Amino acid sequence: MAIRMPLEREPKERHVNSLIHSIMQYIKNLDRNVPFEEIQRMTMIELEGDRKLIEALQKNKRVQVGKNFLRYKPQYNIREEKDLETLMKNTKCRNGVSVTRLTDSPVNVRALIDSLVEKKIVYILKDSDGSEILFYNKVVVQPADEKIKALWSEISVPNYPDILKELNQAGIKVEQKFFDDKKNIVKKKPKVKKFKRKIKITNTHVKGLNLNDMDL
């Protein structure tokens, strides 16, 4: 009886989008033209002669397709700090610019962002989902003069109950509960209970003197 050997399954053909994703993940970290030969060696994806794959890459806005190479094109062409500052200054979007989109580049844009934040040219706000949004700082506040700082430090700040009283006298109503909550509570020191020690004295050589009846 002949034994039928199981047929080997042919490798399932990968979808074009899956191939593009693998290629993008490799070239996006390289700030240069990446030859087809290198892409094939590093991703096991052959581009030479694959017309369907080449045409799909040509339609992708993030890829520059050359004769025998690919190059990643980030959404924002930022190469130095001045480029980022110009971009943020010219951006009229009230919602700011996503930090994720800015850092999607082979260039270390995060370092440029941190530098501008330190200089207070831009600032970062976090959205409810934790994502970071970059905004251009249109209001640049100059540091106060040292004399003004000295005068400010000399001003005595009244305590909270006095502030509330002043507000009430000025016609600004403040609920009574704020007074109750902010009253200075004086903690009473617990009384230390004194105990009388009874000492039995055995030295009774003096006649008529009973020291055990005395409170010590």
UniProtKB/TrEMBL annotation:
Compartment annotation: Nucleus
Molecular functions per Gene Ontology: DNA binding; TFIIH-class transcription factor complex binding; translation initiation factor activity
UniProt keyword annotation of Isomerase present: no
GO-annotated cellular components: transcription factor TFIIE complex
Ranges that cross the membrane: none
TFIIE beta domain ranges (all copies): 3-79
Entry annotated with the keyword Transcription regulation: yes
Any one of the GO BP annotations: transcription initiation at RNA polymerase II promoter
Keywords carried by this UniProt record: DNA-binding, Initiation factor, Nucleus, Protein biosynthesis, Transcription, Transcription regulation
Function field: Recruits TFIIH to the initiation complex and stimulates the RNA polymerase II C-terminal domain kinase and DNA-dependent ATPase activities of TFIIH. Both TFIIH and TFIIE are required for promoter clearance by RNA polymerase.
PANTHER family hit by this protein: TRANSCRIPTION INITIATION FACTOR IIE SUBUNIT BETA, TRANSCRIPTION INITIATION FACTOR IIE, BETA SUBUNIT
Descriptive protein name: Transcription initiation factor IIE, beta subunit
